[in-house]
């Protein structure tokens, strides 16, 4: 779904175009709506993650993004149970580990995630890890520090993060900002419709330099997931594969 900048609508969710059956639906033709804003959980503090998730759900978050590789699915499952929010109200995204993509591994991997989460289903099992595209690096400041973003934020009385999140949603992208701070959890929900002028200004920021990625995933997964000349990982090493080999 893509919204033109002149649209008076500001989406709170996006329709998934391909119907997907789940245990909570009576028919496979029921459309699914993914919330426009979710909570990213990669590297959130283990000691406080259940509290963070519960606070987020209390504030109104209805999309939680996790992955087997994050090592926090058990804690997230506990938080979901503690929250008492009905299961059908929460969209849960999980991800296969990069080296568990052999078709014979998928069912086992997903079932392990569901067991850890103590859920009957996840809405959107994906591969890979999230990329923090607005984070700065040492080579170039990120969009949060761009002078034009700072100017728009000042003019609108919003934070740079709110401006960028609003732009992403207005263009039709579901976002999953991550934070461990209560005030930021609330702030990230306070998105708003940008004016046509501001929307187009942000839309054109990449024009002079081309698209820039602000996080090198090889630091986390050991290889460049975006290298088009080399498909990695080459080896598949799901833990249950090794167990069966040892028998």
Largest sheet: 3 strands, parallel
Helix and strand pattern: EEEHEHEEHEHHHHHH
Low-confidence segments: 1-7, 22-28, 132-136
Strand content: 5-15%
- Helix amount: 25-40%
Helix/strand class: mainly alpha
Silhouette: globular
Provide the gyration radius in Å.
19 Å
Described by its quaternary structure, the protein is: single chain
The strand order across the widest sheet is 3-4-5
N/C terminus separation: 49 Å
Instruction: Round the mean pLDDT to the nearest integer and report it.
Output: 80
Report on this structure.
With 247 residues, the protein is mainly α. The chain has helices at 49-59, 73-83, 103-117, 147-156, 160-170, 182-189, 196-203, 218-221, 239-246; strands at 13-16, 32-35, 39-40, 63-65, 91-93, 95-96, 126-127. A 3-stranded parallel sheet has the order 3-4-5, with no helix packed on it. Helix 1 (49-59) links the parallel strand 3 and strand 4 (63-65). Helix 1 packs across helix 2. The relative contact order is 0.15. The model is unreliable at 1-7, 22-28 and 132-136 (pLDDT under 50).
């Amino acid at each position: 779904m893509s919204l033109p900048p002149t649209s008076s609508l500001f989406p709170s969710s996006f329709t998934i175009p391909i119907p997907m059956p789940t245990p909570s639906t009576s028919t496979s033709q029921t459309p699914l709506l993914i919330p426009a804003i979710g909570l990213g959980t990669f590297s959130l503090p283990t000691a406080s993650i259940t509290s963070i998730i519960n606070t987020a759900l209390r504030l109104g978050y209805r999309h939680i993004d996790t992955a087997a590789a994050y090592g926090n699915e058990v804690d997230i499952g506990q938080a979901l149970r503690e929250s008492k929010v009905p299961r059908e109200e929460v969209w849960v995204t999980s991800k296969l580990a990069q080296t568990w993509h052999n078709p014979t591994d998928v069912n086992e991997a997903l079932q392990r995630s569901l067991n850890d989460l103590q859920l009957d289903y996840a809405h959107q099992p994906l591969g890979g890890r999230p990329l923090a595209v607005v984070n700065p690096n040492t080579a170039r400041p990120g969009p949060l520090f761009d002078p034009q973003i700072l100017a728009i934020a000042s003019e609108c009385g919003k934070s740079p993060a709110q401006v960028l999140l609003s732009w992403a949603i207005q263009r039709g992208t579901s976002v999953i900002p991550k934070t461990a701070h209560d005030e930021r959890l609330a702030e990230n929900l306070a998105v708003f419709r940008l004016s046509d002028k501001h929307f187009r200004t942000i839309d054109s920021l990449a024009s002079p330099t081309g698209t820039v990625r602000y996080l090198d995933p090889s630091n986390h997964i050991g290889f460049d997931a975006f290298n088009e000349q080399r498909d990695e990982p080459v080896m598949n090493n799901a833990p249950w594969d090794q167990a069966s080999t040892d028998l």
